[in-house]
Amino acid sequence: MDTLFFIASKVFRSLIRADVWLLIAAAATTLALLRNRPRAARRWSIGLLAYILVLGLLPVGELVMRPLETRYPPNPPLPAIDGIVVLGGGEDTTRTIYWDQPQVNDAGERFTAAIALARQIPDVPVLFTGGDGQLTGLLSDRPGGAIVAEKLFADLGLPTDRVQLEGLSRNTAENARFSYDLIQPTPDQTWVLVTSAFHMPRAMRSFDAAGWPGMIAWPVDFRTGAGTGEFGWFFLGQMGNINTALKEYVGLVAYGLTGR
Question: Rounded to two decimals, what is the model's pTM?
């Protein structure tokens, strides 16, 4: 059942991407022209142009992303902490293996924030949780994100005896369940959860569902700024924020319906 949910979620999220609808509109325009239906082609082309202008000129990405990123405050006060959990997603496993150097992506702040917290709170364990979250991982035995975390933490001077790695999880729900099974936290313990701000609502819900409620959210990797952003031509940036936000909203609904 977990594998079916994993596959279905990946396929559905691919279909709702904002850039996929650009392709659909362009394909519909071309098909209408090939079938000699100029009126339909005109409608689709006008809709396509309007869609591009709206996404390029208006801060739509900021508007849909901001409610996710403001759910939990940045830099909350920390009581006595028993450990730090870092969610995978900031690593680039393929390039790490190819170049034999730890490589991160645009969510790399998950690692840098975890290192900073580990230095601020000495001696507590740091758990990285993340395997191969791609569909292609079902067809191969390639290593997951834990190999990047292991290399990166070691290179940045985090003692190996403080690091724990969970490298089998494929999504946030499995991050939470497998981490809980590995750590077996007691009810009186307090851990810090580090992940991207837009992802934090789903992550906190998943850890609570896994039976790990004593968690403090430490959001990082913010994608929005003050207000709702500036007006201008920011098509690619807005598209990225829209796709990311749509993925999270769909994930929140799906996880809520399935108890994840």
Answer: 0.82
